[in-house]
Amino acid sequence: MPIRRSFGAFKRNWPWIxxxxxxxxxxxxFISKMSASIYFFTYTMGRKDLVPLANSLDLVSLxxxxxxxxxxxxxxxxxxxxxxxxxxxxxxxxxYGGAYNGSLTIVMIGWIxxxxxxxxxxxxxFSMLSDSVDFGEWKTGIRAAGLLTAVGAAFCLxxxxxxxxxxxxxxxxxxxxxxxxxxxxxxxxxxxxxxIWLPAxxxxxxxxxxxxxxxxxxxxxxxxxxxxxxxxTPAESIGIPSEP
Length: 244
Known about the structure:
The protein is mostly helical. Helix content is 76%, strand content 0%.
């Protein structure tokens, strides 16, 4: 299919738009959290030695990924997606409570819990992109799996990660962070914002588009059935349905 025609698959492809927006916000949240973690553990908690351990614990996200297929038997994908994002916010709040009370144990519990929940929110959009490809074909007659996946996954990931990496640095700079020095209370506030509240905000923003996904999730069986029927029909007799 010509590339120019492939762009037609974006037209009114609301499931894809929802996935792309939420993916962008998720990666902005996740990368801002990970990039600011070194400053949080070094200056807020005074435990620079824990930075390698904290970053390596990203592997625990595999726990939720391994059980994702099983969880989808009991919960819809959109509900599970929201749970993953909401759990990521709750993990941030646990970390904040631990830091506020000076409890490293609570901080690590919140850190691990947040990573496990992020594993759900990280994985589901990649598996759901195929549904948006089907929706685009059903809506427009154009199946552009490569283009929709590349933009919806790789492009949104890269842009979100770029913004997520830059914003904490800008915030800490604005609050007076000085490298390799004792930080002022104001600078510590900037680190707190970049590490806890900025990711929590983007996780929350990622939930908003997903709230509108359920409608299209219910349409998936109908779409699959109609696509199968259409593929067995001569191309000249195919009509593109209107969105109910």
